[in-house]
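Design request, tokens follow.
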């Protein structure tokens, strides 16, 4: 920064507060869906084979005159940044300086490339990274690729193209698009989960889990498609059929690798309290972990003559106070005891039911709105607290993987049990009386607490009548523990992590099995990475074995301990694996000796700001936290948590679609009409709709209202907007600004093509303020129109007001209001006759995080030879934030006749002269004699006229 800047005495005031965070009304921007004719080309499907290479030039003619020459500026500065490695974070940094690690959630490089919805979070993190560099921080802002996954493998099966080829093409496409938007990533740290140098350490982490008993094998149900001969992921199964081909899918037990995340359940739960995360995300994680306290109770199975057999069914309940109201048991179709319970007469019905249930996903089975189904097992169990024989039913709304796979059903006090009991005519017994007696006669289940009734068995020494639900539960658990009928139990909804895929395109699991044993043996760490073998055929084997089983020479190996013949594990890791720890590798991406050097991890950890979609709020964050805690326990990392602050950016919805309705005769019917008739929907073009009040109507028939709606951008809906088209027409800086100006970062927003024109005009005004208007032949003048004279106090006040607002709003991630502050500054600056260099240079530095290409070009034109990326960001001087002028009331003979704008230090004579020149006040003062003036500085000016002049003055 030039020495002039240091003369300002600028210092940051961290305690500034701004009461309004709403977007201000501004002539540049329309904040509702403005109708327009221009639409960008929709990207219904862009495959990797059709993606443009970085050097390809797409011919795109703009539909309007460019507001400034972004088409020349942006490629110029992108080349400069790449050649100069402007944003490279050195391997060895000055660790005495503060650090700022800002990270985007790992993207999967799909064939379609990026759309404008993806850029919201990337733009936000880039603004933060650029600000922190200018504030003197060491900034780590990397990018990489979560590149293993199903789509590339599916494409390989269909076309024979190796997944690696497809993945590299897609990565090239993504990288090219990100660079075209000026994001300041350190590309020297780029990583991909598919590279052996990276997944070597993913495999190393797996071996550490295995050593500590946190990785094991178990029989678990999977989605098996007999027709395709393969295991399918949950997302590949729709309504019990395979997404590809529509073949039936069943649930089949298979031996799979599991990770014991449940061992860390309490720590994952407790450590949430200290995180600077949205409360909604933390609550989602708490619910997913699902810690509950209750009791395990044992129900003896009865023989056909009513005698107790040596089989007991263990159930888990969080409401032991309701056990006297249990009128039946429900066990899951996959319960291990089921086959030994079913009576001969019911066996066929039960087996049919099990077959149907095996075709449903866990999500379908537990859907609250679905109709409950079940079948009687033909067997009974004894309720331990009252000795009643209650029927045992089989129902798919109970999962074998949760709790014990069996429940006691209390239909009076559980909605699902009530629906089931009502359908199958099972007794319903009330045992809890609500505090509000009206609820007991509602004809519905009451699941709340109250006072216990109908719950006494003196023979067994258990009487909980009249106790509160809480006290009753405690007494039942105490009785069960004393009599051997149960015990207190803490349970979790969280299940161990299924950590295997029967696919090719994933990290090989570094385990072998001796030919004479099914016991897994880890390979030596010195043999890592265990790389994928080359295959020509990626299709399923048809036997249930993964595709890797086809690589016979790769599968055959030796036991590293005994040297005996062995076979490799042919399942691969799930896509989650590589994304669980990538934030650590970015700290030290070229280290071949360890996952991350201790000194680098200690300095950079934890990630300061982590930005991504809410769809990753549970599983990705939970799995990453689990792995991090394991690494903490073995001394690899120094922090208990990986991410200090998590931000979920909102969704950008597609442009508005207008829907009109027609009756059977083809006549339009208003969308808000109250009719039960069947109506046909019709999409109406934008130009045939106008806004009327808060709704939209047909232009030719304003009596007919239409429905306006937006959807999340997706290829299937055809509402995707390609950023390449926007950049071609308006420039990357305009797109960046519009992404931020649409609304608060965390809110969902609607894309509106015409809205970008407003921020584009703003950038054009900023350009002309500094450079001046083009010559008559359209050629731009060299240099700028700024002057080297000292700024006025008013100019400094306008500048510092903008600095304060922009700094605070960026740091609080309220980027939209930061842009508004710069727009207000530009409006004020256009009223000045001269534009001092010291003011304009500070404004350009403020603009830089948002619109870096333009800012760099303006900085260069202002006479600087180096990039502004590391120039100090302007600091505010609080003295300039105080208003220097006030509105002074002016009275004539004690009656207020108007106000004047005066300096706070204004003298009586100056105030009187201003009042005399004021258009409204001068008519009272011209040509009259004044008896006296009463002046209270900063408060009031009262002019007392001679009495003989009063009437004339009034006239």
């Amino acid at each position: 920064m030039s020495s002039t800047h240091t003369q300002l005495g600028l210092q940051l005031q961290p305690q500034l507060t701004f009461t309004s965070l709403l977007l201000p009304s501004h002539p540049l921007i329309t904040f509702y869906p403005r109708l327009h004719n221009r639409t960008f080309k929709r990207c219904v499907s862009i495959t990797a084979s059709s993606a443009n290479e970085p050097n390809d030039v797409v011919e795109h003619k703009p539909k309007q005159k460019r507001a400034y020459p972004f088409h020349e500026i942006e490629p110029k500065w992108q080349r400069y940044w790449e050649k100069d490695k402007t944003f490279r974070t050195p391997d060895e940094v000055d660790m005495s300086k503060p650090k700022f690690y800002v990270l985007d959630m790992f993207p999967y490089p799909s064939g379609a490339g990026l759309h404008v919805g993806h850029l919201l979070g990337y733009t936000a993190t880039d603004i933060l990274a650029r600000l922190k560099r200018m504030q003197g921080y060491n900034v780590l802002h990397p990018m990489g690729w979560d590149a293993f996954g199903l789509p590339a493998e599916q494409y390989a099966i269909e076309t024979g193209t190796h997944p690696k080829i497809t993945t590299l093409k897609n990565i090239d496409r993504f990288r090219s698009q990100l660079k075209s938007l000026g994001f300041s990533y350190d590309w020297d740290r780029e990583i991909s989960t598919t590279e052996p140098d990276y997944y070597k350490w993913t495999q190393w982490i797996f071996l550490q889990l295995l050593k500590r008993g946190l990785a094991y094998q178990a029989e678990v149900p999977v989605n098996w498609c007999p027709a395709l001969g393969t295991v399918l992921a949950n997302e590949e199964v729709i309504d019990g059929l395979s997404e590809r081909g529509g073949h039936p899918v069943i649930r089949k037990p298979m031996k799979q690798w599991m990770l014991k995340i449940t061992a860390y359940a309490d720590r994952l739960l407790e450590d949430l309290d200290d995180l600077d995360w949205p409360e909604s995300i933390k609550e989602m994680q708490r619910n997913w972990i699902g810690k509950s306290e209750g009791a395990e109770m044992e129900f003896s199975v009865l023989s056909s003559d009513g005698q107790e057999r040596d089989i007991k069914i263990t159930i888990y309940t969080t409401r032991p106070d309701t056990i006297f109201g249990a009128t039946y048991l429900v066990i899951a179709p996959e319960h291990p005891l089921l086959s030994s319970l079913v009576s001969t007469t019911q066996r066929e019905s039960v087996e049919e039911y099990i077959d149907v249930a095996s075709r449903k996903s866990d999500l379908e089975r537990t859907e609250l709105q679905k109709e409950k189904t079940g079948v009687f097992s033909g067997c009974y169990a004894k309720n331990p607290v009252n000795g009643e024989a209650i029927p045992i039913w089989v129902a798919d709304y109970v999962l074998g993987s949760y709790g014990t796979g069996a429940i006691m059903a209390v239909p009076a006090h559980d909605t699902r049990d009530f629906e089931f009991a009502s359908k199958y005519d099972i007794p319903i017994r009330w045992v809890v009386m609500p505090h509000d007696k009206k609820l007991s006669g509602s004809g519905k289940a009451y699941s709340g607490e109250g006072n216990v009734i109908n719950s006494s068995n003196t023979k067994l020494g258990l009487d909980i009548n009249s106790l509160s639900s809480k006290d009753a539960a405690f007494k039942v658990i105490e009785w069960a523990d004393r009599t051997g009928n149960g015990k207190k139990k803490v349970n979790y909804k969280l299940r161990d992590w299924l950590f295997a895929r029967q696919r090719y395109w994933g990290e090989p699991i570094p385990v072998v099995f001796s030919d004479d044993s099914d016991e897994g043996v880890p390979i030596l760490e010195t043999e890592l990475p265990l790389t994928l073998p080359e295959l020509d055929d990626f299709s399923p084997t048809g036997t249930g074995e993964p595709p890797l089983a086809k690589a016979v020479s790769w599968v055959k190996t030796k036991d590293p301990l005994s040297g005996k013949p062995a076979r490799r594990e042919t399942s691969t890791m799930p896509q989650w694996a590589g994304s669980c720890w990538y934030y650590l590798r970015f700290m030290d991406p070229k280290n071949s000796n360890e996952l991350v050097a201790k000194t680098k991890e200690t300095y950079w950890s934890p990630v300061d700001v982590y930005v991504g979609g809410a769809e990753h709020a549970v599983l990705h964050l939970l799995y990453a936290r689990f792995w991090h805690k394991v690494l903490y326990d073995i001394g690899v990392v120094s922090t208990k948590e990986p991410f200090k602050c998590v931000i979920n950016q909102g969704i950008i919805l597609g442009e508005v679609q207008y829907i009109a309705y027609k009756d059977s005769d083809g006549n339009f019917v208003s969308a808000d009409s109250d009719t039960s008739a069947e109506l046909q929907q019709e999409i109406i073009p934008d130009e045939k709709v106008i806004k009327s009040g808060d709704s939209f109507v047909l232009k030719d028939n304003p009596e007919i209202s239409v429905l306006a709606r937006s959807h999340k951008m997706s290829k299937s809906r055809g509402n995707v907007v390609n950023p390449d088209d926007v950049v071609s027409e308006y420039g990357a800086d305009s797109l960046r600004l519009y992404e931020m100006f649409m609304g608060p970062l965390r809110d969902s927003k609607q894309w509106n093509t015409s809205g970008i024109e407003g921020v584009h005009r703003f950038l054009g005004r900023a350009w002309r303020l500094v450079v001046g208007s083009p010559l008559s032949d359209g050629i731009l003048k060299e240099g700028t129109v700024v002057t080297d004279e000292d700024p006025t106090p008013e100019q400094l006040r306008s500048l510092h007001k903008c600095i304060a607002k922009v700094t605070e709003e960026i740091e609080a991630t309220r980027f939209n209001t930061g842009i508004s502050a710069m727009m207000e500054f530009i409006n004020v600056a256009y009223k000045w006759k001269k534009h001092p260099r010291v003011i304009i240079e500070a404004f350009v530095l403020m603009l830089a995080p948002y619109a870096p290409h333009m800012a760099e070009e303006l900085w260069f034109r202002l006479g600087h030879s180096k990039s502004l990326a590391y120039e100090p960001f302007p600091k505010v001087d609080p003295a300039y934030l105080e208003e220097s002028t006030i509105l002074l009331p002016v009275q004539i003979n004690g009656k207020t006749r108007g106000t004047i704008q005066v300096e706070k230090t204004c003298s009586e004579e100056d105030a009187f002269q201003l009042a005399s020149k004021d258009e409204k006040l001068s008519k009272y003062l011209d040509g009259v004699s004044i008896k006296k003036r009463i002046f209270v500085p900063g408060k009031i000016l009262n002019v007392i006229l001679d009495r003989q002049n009063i009437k004339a003055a009034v006239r």
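Comment from the thread starter after seeing the answer: thanks! Confidence is low (pLDDT under 50) at residues 1-63.
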